[in-house]
Amino acid sequence: GLTYLGKNEMSILFPIASRLMKLDLLYAFLDTAAHCFLLQRCPNLEILETRNVVGDRGLEVLGQYCKRLKRLRIERGADDQEMEDEEGAVTHRGLIDLAKGCLELEYMAVYVSDITNEALEIIGTYLKNLSDFRLVLLDREERITDLPLDNGVRA
């Protein structure tokens, strides 16, 4: 992976970004905006590993620019609020954008802050190749938008 990659070093990837097929950003020091800036330059990306700081905006960018994505792993980011970008939360909104844009996804493991039946139904409808789906609901949220998730799980 790109250990300790920060915004200032990110430009070294730009000349080869369009040829990247795998990107490991688990230990990179990138906020949501930097993730978006980099990911929109990676149209051939098939495998991405990152933290939930990628946020809903990052998933929207993936859905728009990374149509060949097959494997996505989004790990839990820092628990300290100072360490985590304010926007750096993955919710049902980001998953919906991702599912509608990355139709080739086969594997998805994601830590989310919020989820809805609608998002799960859209994932089931759009991601026909998805054979391994792992969803972890973070427990620090005060309330979850849509419970129970029975209808979404059935999809």
Automatic annotation (TrEMBL):
One cellular component term from this protein's GO annotations in UniProt: SCF ubiquitin ligase complex
PANTHER family: CORONATINE-INSENSITIVE PROTEIN 1, F-BOX/TPR REPEAT PROTEIN POF3
Top-level taxon of the source organism: Eukaryota
Annotated Gene3D superfamilies: Ribonuclease Inhibitor
Species this protein is from: Solanum nigrum (Black nightshade)
BP term (GO), one: SCF-dependent proteasomal ubiquitin-dependent protein catabolic process
Protein name: Coronatine-insensitive 1
